[in-house]
Amino acid sequence: MRAVTLILMAVLAVAPASVQKRKAPAKAPAKPVPTKTLTPDVKCPSLIGMGVQTVRSFCDVPAGRDPQQGIVITLPPHAGSGTLTFDLHARHLYSDEEIRSGKAYSRYRAGIGVLTMSGELLGRGAVEAEFRSAADLFDRIGGGSGGGLKAVAPAGRSEVTVEVPANVDQVSLLGEVLDAVTPAGHETVVLPGRPVAIVSNILFEFKPAPPPKPTKKRR
């Protein structure tokens, strides 16, 4: 009897140690949140129209320093920083007469800024393009007189990428400078409100922010 009692005591003494050695089951790693890419809401103060080939929406980028007067882009809620991309084009006034006369050569250098609505500069974009013939145009825009094509057309293409911080939900595109050589002469544009370039294909890549936690109801 005494031997049985000693064995039981030994088992009880060892049991806690064996329990301590047991490891808790490992937690499954959290699944990474996939990124999304979408076209954000864009408020264009001067919409040129739709491209006949690309079916893109083209918008003038006005010069200025007031973010409210630029192209205002409203971004979806995002966790961490997101990536804003768009195509920047030179703004050309097409003329068949100038092409026939051999005087159509134009050169454009334009720069724009991407700002928060409080005026903080997040990044810049620039485009340089030359025009000699219709083949140098990126696209033509429909909706001209008599159902034809508009004279304003995008030339060249420069892809711009800007990182947007997590706490920024709106940005503005504003022109900084345009240096242009056209049949009309040499011009430098910095006057607020004057278009300096054309923008298209605005996209935003981001990780969606988690839904807000439900608030507890007070009894």
Observed structural traits:
Jelly Rolls, six-stranded antiparallel beta sheet, mainly beta, 219 residues, 12 strands
Structural class based on helices, strands and sheet pairing: mainly beta
Give the C-level CATH assignment.
Answer: Mainly Beta
The residue ranges in which pLDDT falls below 50 over 5 or more consecutive positions are: none
- How many whole angstroms does the radius of gyration measure? 30 Å
Average of per-residue pLDDT values: 88
Overall structural domain count: 1
CA-to-CA gap between the ends?
62 Å
Helix share bin: 10-25%
> How many alpha or pi helices?
2
Largest sheet: 6 strands, antiparallel
Helix and strand pattern: HEEEEEEHEEEEEE
CATH third-level topology: Jelly Rolls
Strand content: 35-45%
Tell me what the CATH architecture is. Sandwich
**Spatial shape:** elongated
Number of strands: 12
Which SSEs are present, and which pair or pack?
Elements (H helix, E strand, L loop, with lengths): L1 H20 L14 E3 L2 E3 L3 E4 L6 E6 L8 E4 L7 E12 L2 H6 L4 E11 L4 E11 L20 E13 L5 E13 L2 E5 L5 E12 L13
